[in-house]
Amino acid sequence: MLPTIIVIAIVLILAIFLITSYNRLIKLRNWVQEAWSQIDVQLKRRHDLIPNLVNTVKGYAEHERETLESVVEARSQLVNGSPQERIDADNQIEGALKSIFALSESYPDLKANENFLNLQEELSTTENKVAYSRQLYNKSVAEYNIKRQSFPTNLMASMFNFEGEEPLSIPEEEREVPDVSF
Amino acid sequence: MLYQQINQNKRKTVLLVALFSVLVLVLGSAIGYLLNNDFVSGVIITIIVLAIYVPITLKTANAQVLKMSGSKEIQRKDHPQLFGVVEELSIAARIPMPKVYIVEDPAPNAFATGTKPEKGAVAFTTGLLDRLNREELSGVAAHEIAHIRNYDIRLMTICVALVGVIVLVANIGSRMMLFGGARRGGGNNKSNPILMILAIVLVILAPIAAQFVKLAVSRNREYLADASAVEFTRNPKGLINALNKISQDPNDVKEAKEATASMYISNPFKKKRKKKSSLWSTHPPMESRIEQLKNM
User: Fold this and answer.
1) Least CB-CB distance to A125: which of B87, B92, B232?
2) Where are the transmembrane segments (chain A) (predicted)?
């Protein structure tokens, strides 16, 4: 009698362990995907806002063609390509947008334009959302990878082929201390 | 440093709530002993009171706090920047977008409510919105969203409810002792006089002790929310500058009540914002909060 109880107990404990660690992995992997779709939504939003910004700025600063073109060029990459490619395009746009907002300093009319101010606020909140989503994405990837690799869940992970996820990296130039000149 | 602090705060909270529960049950048994000469009946009655009182408080707390503070809900078009900031930080905290409220008041302050993240709401005074820039506003919003994500509001509501139960039970106990004590005194000689005195002291001290524990929980959660705010924004500077601006303002929040004081980012009553840490304060001293933020 006693041995049967022990066997049943061991089987039960094993089953509970298998179910909870499998569910935990599923949950963590879904969080990674959800965090990515957040980034996706924001990148799309940024993509949609850019033509409005370019049109508004054009009216005031037609000859700043180069800055505007660089934004439009990077824009198409925002919605196509691999995650890392799209994040790289986003970083490029971020730099170009900064120069557009800096350029508005020399055009008082543009700086006072309400449409421009609204766009500026919308683009900066979108930029922040991208940044926070990336932070969340990397955090989720780390949580998932840690769970996937640590014992004993790693046994489950290899049994059911839970692949590792790659965190998003930041571009090299952002690691350097920015040059400040007056 | 950051994660260590979050973990340390979580441990302290568990300890404090455990302390609270023990206090409630001991009080219940003391009153049971005083009235019926047994320890069990009082505990049972206290548990019944708890089982009714705590869920009701949790259910109604949200609406009550928002109503008491005189705040009104806003939409994106009313304040696009504030709306954007709250949206950004709820992404970082992985909670649903809370409702956004504004309180017409020149004193810069903010509070959050919501016993679970799905029912979260954040409120900001107009004084705060006028004075802070985007970065500082992000710091404050992150602090409030941290309260929601960390389930601080549920914890504080439970604490308030427990204090309520303790005060209620102690009140009933002392009344019954006053009015029923003489009538019962003659026939009942079985009770131990030392235990009797201990029980009476407990009935008197329990409400005061409960108040202290509640305030200690409240102070602790402020540090935790500050730490989580930095976890979200990765930028202690915004919150530091905001706290400096808030602490320099001399105004009281008009609609704030004693019961809701611990919900605000900084004590809404200026004269109670002491330099030194005190057992009676709802918030830790601003200096030590800023000091902790600088060390992150």
Assistant:
1) B87
2) 6-25
Task: Pick the closest to residue A52 from A67, A66, A77, A72 (CA basis).
Answer: A72
Q: Please give the mean pLDDT across all residues of chain B.
A: 82
CB atoms under 10 Å from CB of B230, counted, come to 24
The answer to ipTM > 0.90 is no
C-alpha pair distances (Å), A92 with each of A100, A122, A173, B13: 13, 18, 11, 45
Q: What is the CA radius of gyration of chain B?
A: 22
In terms of DSSP H, where are the helices of A61-159?
65-77, 83-103, 108-112, 114-149, 153-159
Asked if B36 and B29 touch (Cβ cutoff 8 Å), the reply is no
Asked if B260 and B32 count as a contact pair (C-beta separation under 8 A), the reply is no
DSSP for A4-18 reads: HHHHHHHHHHHHHHH
Query: In a 3-state reduction of DSSP, which class is residue B207?
Result: helix
What pLDDT score does B57 carry? 84
Query: Which residues have CB under 8 Å from B242's CB, separation 6+?
Result: B132, B136, B137, B139, B140
Beta carbons of A129 and B88 less than 8 Å apart: yes
B135: confidence class by pLDDT, cuts 50, 70, 90: very high
CB distance from B89 to chain A under 8 Å? yes
* Confidence band, pLDDT 50/70/90 cuts, at residue B98: very high
Q: Using 50, 70 and 90 to split pLDDT, how confident is the model at B5?
A: low
Cα gap B131→B137, rounded to integer Å: 9
Query: What's the mean pLDDT when you consider all of chain A?
Result: 82
pLDDT at A42 over 80: yes
Distance set, CA A66 to CA A73, A91, A99, B5, B266 (Å): 10, 18, 11, 48, 48
Give me the mean pLDDT over the A86-96 stretch: 83
Interface of B with A in 154-213 (CB under 8 A): none
B131: closest CA among B2, B266, B277? Answer: B266
Known binding residue B283? Answer is: no
CB count within 10 Å of CB B69 equals 25
Quickly tell me which residue has 């900084």 as its tokens.
Answer: B266
| CB environment B128-163: b (16+ within 10 A), e (fewer) | bbebbebebbbbbbbbbbbbbbbbbbbbbbbbbbbb
Q: Quick check: is B144 catalytic?
A: yes
